[in-house]
Amino acid sequence: MTISNQSNQQKAAKFTVPGMDETFANRAIATLDNRMVALLDLALTLKHVHWNVVGPNFIGVHEMLDPQVEAVRDMTDTIAERIATLGGSPVGTPQSIADRRTWHDYSLGKALVIEHLGALDLVYNGVNSDHRKAIGEMAELDPVSEDMLIGQLTYLEQFQWFIRAHLESSDGDLLTANSQTELAAAKSALS
Q1: Which of 104, 109, 153, 170 is most buried, with most CB under 10 Å away?
Q2: Directed axis angle between helix 22-52 and helix 143-164, to 10°?
Q3: Per-run averaged pLDDT (10 residues), the chain, 191 residues
Q4: Torsion angle of alpha carbons 173, 190, 42, 95, nearest 10°?
Q5: Which terms are listed as keywords in the entry (predicted)?
């Protein structure tokens, strides 16, 4: 049985909420779709790390990640529902998510807690900075979506702070500050 590719592609709005222009709705849907994909990927990455951390502080980090996973999953649901509200069709199938991703897959497998935390700091850098950009876009397009993303970023930044608390020196230096890749951040965190 062959399934049409069209069913796995984001559909533009043919209608939207009263008072919103369809062009603005379509732009908002595209931005929200990008954030939905990023958060779906983040939830899976956090769960992967939850399963693959080892070493000192294992249980604390293992248990710290589950509430983050749940919160990020809730964020994706909220975004998907906003896409539908605006007249779009949220698509969350595995292949469509992989196809729409613009970043590389998480690169660490089983590793020490500190290595994963170093890599996760970089993951959160990307997710959070892209969420900020999306907020800027939504300021012009849709204040309701802008407010939703601001609320989400509040939690995402707090989650990154939880990660960074393990990576910060007593002098306030961040061990991963100059890292450009997850593997480099993992190595820097070991220092």
Answers
A1: 153
A2: 20
A3: 43 81 95 97 97 94 97 98 96 93 93 97 97 97 97 98 95 92 93 82
A4: 140
A5: DNA-binding
Token pair, residue 161, equals 């702070």
Record: fold of 19-190: Ferritin (1.20.1260)
> Token pair 């407010």 is at which residue?
147
Q: What is the pTM of this model?
A: 0.91
Which of 39, 66, 29 is CA-nearest to residue 126?
Answer: 39
Tally of CA atoms within 13 A in the half-sphere of 41 that contains its CB: 24
CA dist., res. 69 & res. 56, Å (int)? 22
**Distance between CA atoms of 123 and 174, rounded to whole angstroms?**
15
